[in-house]
Amino acid sequence: MIGARIFVALIFGILAASFIGSIYILMIEFGNQDWFQLAAVYSQAFLFFPTIGLVALIACYTPATIFIDLYWHHVNNGRLRLLIGFVFIAGLSVYIAGILSGRNILLETIWKAEQPATQADIVPAIWELHPQTLAKDTGNPANCVTSDELCVRQPILRSVQILRRVSQSRTGLTAFSRNCSRDPLLEDPPSDNLLRYCFPLLRKVDAKSCCFAQERFSRELSNMYREEEKHSQTGYIHAVSLPFKVFFMLTILMIGGLLATWRQKLDRFYESYMPRVENGVLIGATAMLFWPVTNQAFLQSAATLYGPYSGSIYQDNLGAAFSLVFGFWALLILFFFFRHHEKTVELWVKILGAVGSVLAAVSYNFIIDYAVRFTGAGTYMWTFVILALLGLMVFISSHFWPARKSSDTPKSSF
Question: Looking at the structure, do residues 316 and 365 belong to the same domain, yes or no?
Fold first, then answer.
């Protein structure tokens, strides 16, 4: 399996570089003070992948190698199917990344296509703007922070700084989310008249005033992004690396599903490897379950800044879908990949039942509030580092767990 190992190591090395590259450029470009504030708010993009995501990547190395060797040697038309599957996943990754980022980096790079900066409806992430552009932003009206005039929009970085400070001092931001999409057939809820803190304004206002401020916040971000020189290098590197991150997530899903599908062949041809494969998939699945948590934490933070005016399909539609997909994937791993291990399944069913009972007893917003505090805008770097180190420790220790006895493993020349 030397060839399979080299191929997977090459692909996974590229993926690991894409994980680390985005946060490295963010650190270099935005400096010591601003970079981690932005990384915390956008933790699903910058903090998860270079820490917990790397653990999942490492854990899935052996399963991916076995998968490649299986299709290369033991599946009818496996090499052709492997090639078609690889091209399909790669193409789908580029397509999904283009939808999420709002720009087709492949067309921009190869054919020098016109970038979307001239489109008025593009509302960028804050880190997509150049650091100097953000540093020069003094709010609207200009310099309103240092004058007696009330700001109709606070400086962008100041709003992010206060958002992070509030997230660290309390659990969650649910109370600050406003419903800006009113039903014309129903009366306005009484809570709309309550004065609550609004982060684009950094003062207490009613729901209507905060919605106007969020709309202005999004519109002025869009206006800044129209000029090419105001784009950040981080935004470009993120757009380049995003297809690789999507490819990784799709590959993780495929590994779990296909290894469950081909379980009999795996037991036949790779019996001695199966303990490591099982442990790797379980650890990878556990690590990947943290991504929907960071994703939901970001969505709540974004709701307090942008409201419903970000124009992002990612923020508006895909958050719940991602959580559903990865939740279903975890169940697939549990009930199909480990169907020959009745004791393991029974144990995990009991654990999941207990967890489900606890989650059913608390509100959804309560869970997301804790996600914001510990894995979102209120997080610290050590939180992700500790989780990553724990994952690595479990992964390393899994290699010393008792392995079931097996017959000789077939040799492979690939």
Answer: yes
Instruction: Answer yes or no: do 203 and 297 share one domain.
Output: no
pLDDT for position 256: 76
Is residue 236 domain-shared with residue 225, that is, in the same domain?
A: no
Domain count, the chain: 2
Is 276 or 127 the better-scoring residue by pLDDT?
A: 127
- Whether 137 shows a pLDDT value over 80: the answer reads yes
Sign, CA dihedral 175-180-182-188, equals positive
Calculate what percentage of the chain has a pLDDT beyond 90.
Answer: 33
Backbone phi, psi, residue 153, to 5°: -155, 125
Side-chain half-sphere exposure of 83, counting CA atoms within 13 A:
3
What are the structure tokens assigned to 323, written together? 């959580």
Q: Which range among 72-76, 243-247, 349-353 has the greatest average pLDDT? A: 243-247
Phi-psi region of 178 (alpha: psi -120 to 50; beta: other; left: phi over 0): beta
Question: Is 140 in the same domain as 103?
Answer: no
My answer on whether 155 and 244 are in the same domain is no
* Token code pair at residue 80: 């052709």
| 332 and 248, same domain (yes or no) | yes
- Domain boundary, last residue among 230, 265, 295: 230
* Range 160-183 average pLDDT: 87
How many angstroms separate the Cα of 77 from the Cα of each of 71, 72, 102, 185, 259? Answer: 8, 8, 37, 59, 17
- Spatial distance between the Cα atoms of 246 and 95, rounded to a whole number of angstroms: 10
Beta bridge partners of residue 197, listed in sequence order:
204
Same domain, 136 and 156: yes
Q: What is the 3-state secondary structure (H, E, C) of 359-391?
A: HHHCCHHHHHHHHHHHHCCCCCHHHHHHHHHHH
